[in-house]
Amino acid sequence: MTVTADGGRVLHHKGAGAPFMVADALAAPGVATRYTVGDVARDLTRATSHAGDLLLTRLNGRGVVGLRAQPVKDILSWSSDAKIMPNGYVRKPLTIQPRAGKTIALAFTASVVEETWELLQDRQPVVVGTGAPVPGVGIRVVQVKAVDVDWLASTGLHRVKFTWSEVVRAQLDASHAFSGAAPVLTWGEWASTGNGWKNVTYTQLAREIAGMPV
Predict the structure, then answer these.
(1) Per-residue pLDDT tens over the stretch 86-110
(2) Contact 125/95 with Cβ under 8 angstroms?
(3) pLDDT of residue 164
(4) pTM of the full structure
(5) CATH number of the domain at 50-178, out of 3.40.50, 2.40.30, 2.60.40, 3.40.630?
(6) Which phi-psi region, left, alpha or beta, contains residue 127 (left: φ > 0; alpha: ψ -120 to 50)?
């Protein structure tokens, strides 16, 4: 059984057997995504929060809650790395360089700042986007290059700025880790509810904790 998303991303591929669940960490909130399970296609839409929220997660879909995007949220740049010789000849790299960018966000508590530091210092790429559709700003998988945090107020308000290089489509296609496939629910997320052992199905928990539609 194969589950694919728009663009050919493979979220699940396994022979017939026990039922399974999978989440899509690269689904843009508020934008319909078409999923194909075998021969059946359905359009599903990830729930939104607010366009001013910054979506910042690891590849497994787990991230920081409580970041707000600044008005200038998305700053892009690109360089061809072309070398122009004195005689006018131009030498360019064999591969097109990825886009670079900067993201600026606000964190309102010290705990959110620490969570953000931990996530951005991780070795793996991260997923950046907004909590609701913003024209021209989609979901991106990026490799963080540098982080700068400014303390703004005694209330715990900080400005977080980080520069990144976009992970190109070829890398996404070549690695299952970048497909967007993510666990619907983890043991840690259940444990954090404080409910302890409980006679309940995984489907019920997915709806209760992960927000899976009925």
Answers:
(1) 888 888 878 788 889 999 999 999 9
(2) no
(3) 94
(4) 0.81
(5) 2.40.30
(6) beta
